[in-house]
Amino acid sequence: MITTLTQISEESQPLVPDPVSKTVLMLPKCNDNELPLDTNGNISKSEPTVEKIEETKEISDISDISDVEDNVENNNNVENIKDNAESIKNEKPLPHYEKYKFLFWEFETPVIWVSVFFITLWHVLSVYMCCTFPLFDKIPLVIYATIIGGISGFGVTGGAHRYFTHKSYKARLPLKIILLICYSVAGQNTLYDWVRDHRVHHKFSETDADPHNAKRGFFFSHVGWLMMRKHPEVIRKGRMINLTDITGDPLVAFHVKYWFWFKLFFCFVIPSSIPPLLWGESWYHSICAICFVRYVISLNSTWAVNSFAHFFGNKPYDNYIRPAENLTVSFFAMGEGYHNYHHTFPWDYRAAEVGQMLNVTTLWLNFFEKIGWAYELRAPSSDLIQRITRNRGDGSHEKWGHEVPDTYSCPVATEVRKEQ
After folding, report:
1. Model pTM score
2. Which of 36, 175, 202, 326 is the right S-S partner for 337, CB 3.0 to 4.6 Å?
3. Which pLDDT tens digit goes with each residue over 270-327?
């Protein structure tokens, strides 16, 4: 069952949920980022300009409708979201940084030298091991490492990203457990941190509140943001994000609480132990392939979405945002490189309109839907895609890319229906 959003009015406005009255608030008319702003640059909360419309779908969580808000860049500065400051460790009170200088370079925030050391060391060792690895003598190990990389990739793309962050589909318990285990194999941040950072990234993309703001440079958006203290705006906006779906899930809470052990065993110990125990592979080469080369390639595949897909590619769906379509990233990141589409329709479980052969994550989700473990997969209607593409695209869409508008009227879905 796929939920689709239809019936766009080009004169309609982006929707914002009212968590108190369970209705939807319609923001004032906007044209090409000309939202009503207050003196601080945030969307004005002037009540006389807001009208209420009937709710067409039950709103159980603010994230249920955040997808509609993400159609227009940075129109999500809504302050009525529950403050989760108590849930964020080591991030209060807000820090104040002067420009941080090191030798001849100047940085927005202080450098975390411990992170710089270990990230650099891991990459240098991985390059050395990759160059000295007897590739053709270790074909079974190479195939095994590729499979482990695919498992970890699905944990990030199908789990942390499309399920836990965007709620683009619903998962039954067996699939949820699989997603958590696969994400553990990836060995990234805790699921809580991952979801919070990515929701902030979508709501405040390419601003100081974006954890990996591409405007601060390619290297920063790729890995540099993990080597530096967070910008105070990232922390402040992060406290605005509703994460009750994460903190309120006992299974996820357990996973976050014992994340160190999940990461240690599922990312390093268990995967690297299987080849020596199963077919007598050497421990050295198994550790090289799994704990270093595979791990570093998996990390960089995820990071490439934040860097390469924000710098290189066309923008058939929304030419007014930075994310772009990048087929190379889609290959390595299992379908996550259709980034212009994803930032335009973040609630789509496919994260792409086309390119199924490069979208391995979608193929797996379709499989889990057939066996009943995934259900209510969400996707925009063809009419919605067409209207937004013709209004905002750069003209490169193969079907609807001939007309590029001079002005843009904010589109909005005004009806929700379900298709069998």
Report:
1. 0.74
2. 326
3. 999 999 999 999 999 999 999 999 999 999 999 999 999 999 999 999 999 999 999 9
